């Protein structure tokens, strides 16, 4: 679940993350027909061109505003082509995406809330860029993985919902974190639909004006903070299953490309940096490390599927990614006795010094991971 409002702690994490994922990069080569300069402020979203060739394009983003922002490329129906969250004030980031000919919207979201400031753009030409057949195989394998995660989530979520409906507080608590693992592994796919994530994974501080709070975190609050299950909670449990079934049925129709897989891995690390490391995601249950591990697993799955092509194009990047994934997984293993289980230390028992180490591990991985999308298109554009 993307953060919508930043606390001081989260803002610090974002600053650290953006510092290693683009703020030191020089400006883009603005004369390239495939580079779109996006300048975001608190009140504007300016693009250097509104028409460009279909295929691989690069967004060279600079946030000149005072608020943390997000930048999206959207289909006409608001499904997400690609996104980059948590772009700090005064920082720059680059995002590589693949688009077919057609009309799109580039949206900047200062403060990371609302519909954003929008610019309509057009990709011209024939079909999307040619690519290595191995990348088509990677997309097919990832699509299968995403569907498997959704299929595996439903029975676990139904166990959770059944416990809520039975009024069994302890059983519901036990079933809560396991029911979220498949979702957390593939969250960028769910977020790409636009309407499912706000129903099932929104936190109280992420609600839009007039939005009813539903989903996992609403029930998490009842179980751990309120310590009681109400009649409304039982209705919300049914609604959660309805919404997750909708997700399960739509996963196979998601638009997935090699670059969206790579960018999705980076998005999962952003999720960790701005929600799990800070303890804001699971603020009542303190099961943040379960989500943390699932996010890392999802990012690593995308990476492993893209790795053969990335290794040919940028061997040094692959070496660094292997190193940083291993380091972060080793660090996470310190917080569980059994490496095959998801029984992690409650996050409220993790001190500030250890949280800093986890944050540093995430940042060390996020920096090279932000380069993966460019690595898989270098020779396939």
From the structure above, extract its key features.
381 residues; alpha+beta; single chain
Protein described:
With 381 residues, this protein is an alpha+beta fold. The protein has 13 helices and nine strands. It has helices at 8-20, 133-165, 169-176, 181-185, 187-192, 197-200, 216-226, 231-250, 258-276, 288-313, 315-333, 352-369, 372-377, and strands at 35-40, 45-47, 51-53, 55-63, 69-74, 80-87, 92-99, 102-108, 117-124. The strands form two sheets. A five-stranded mixed sheet has the order 3-9-8-5-6. Helix 9 packs antiparallel against helix 12, helix 10 runs antiparallel to helix 11 (315-333) and helix 11 (315-333) runs antiparallel to helix 12 (352-369). The chain is globular. The chain starts with 7 loop residues before the first helix and ends with a helix.
Mean pLDDT: 87
Q: Tally of extended strands? A: 9
Helical content band: 40-55%
Radius of gyration: 20 Å
Give me the secondary-structure category: alpha+beta
């Amino acid at each position: 679940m993307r953060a919508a409002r930043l606390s001081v702690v989260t803002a610090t994490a974002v600053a650290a993350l953006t510092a290693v994922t683009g703020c030191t990069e020089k400006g883009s080569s603005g004369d390239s027909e495939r580079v779109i300069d996006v300048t975001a402020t608190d009140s504007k979203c300016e693009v250097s061109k509104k028409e460009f060739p279909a295929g691989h394009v690069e967004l060279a983003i600079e946030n000149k505003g005072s608020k943390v922002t997000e930048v999206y490329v959207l289909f006409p129906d608001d499904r997400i082509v690609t996104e980059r969250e948590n772009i700090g004030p005064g920082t720059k980031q680059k995002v590589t995406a693949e688009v077919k000919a057609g009309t799109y919207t580039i949206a900047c979201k200062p403060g990371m809330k609302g519909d954003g400031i929008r610019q309509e753009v057009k990709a011209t030409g024939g079909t999307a860029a040619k690519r290595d057949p191995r990348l088509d195989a990677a997309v097919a394998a990832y699509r299968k993985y995403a569907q498997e995660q959704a299929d595996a989530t439903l029975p676990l979520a139904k166990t959770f919902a059944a416990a809520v409906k039975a009024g069994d507080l302890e059983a519901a608590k036990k079933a809560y974190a396991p029911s979220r693992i498949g979702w957390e592994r593939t969250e960028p796919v769910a977020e790409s639909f636009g309407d499912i994530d706000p129903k099932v994974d929104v936190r109280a501080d992420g609600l839009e004006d007039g939005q009813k709070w539903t989903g996992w975190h609403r029930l998490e609050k009842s179980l751990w903070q309120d310590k009681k299950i109400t009649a409304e909670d039982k209705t919300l449990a049914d609604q959660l299953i309805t919404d997750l079934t909708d997700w399960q049925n739509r996963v196979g129709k998601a638009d997935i490309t090699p670059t969206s897989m790579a960018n999705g891995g980076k998005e999962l690390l952003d999720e960790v940096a701005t929600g799990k490391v800070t303890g804001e995601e699971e603020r009542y249950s303190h099961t943040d490390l379960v989500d943390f591990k699932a996010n890392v697993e999802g990012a690593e799955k995308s990476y492993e599927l893209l790795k053969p092509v990335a290794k040919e194009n940028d061997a040094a990047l692959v070496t660094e990614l292997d190193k940083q994934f291993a380091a972060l997984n080793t660090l996470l293993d310190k917080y569980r006795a059994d490496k095959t289980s998801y029984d992690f230390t409650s996050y409220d028992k993790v001190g500030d010094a250890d949280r800093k180490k986890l944050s540093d591990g995430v940042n060390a991985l996020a920096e090279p991971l932000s380069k993966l999308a460019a690595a898989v298109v270098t020779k396939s554009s």
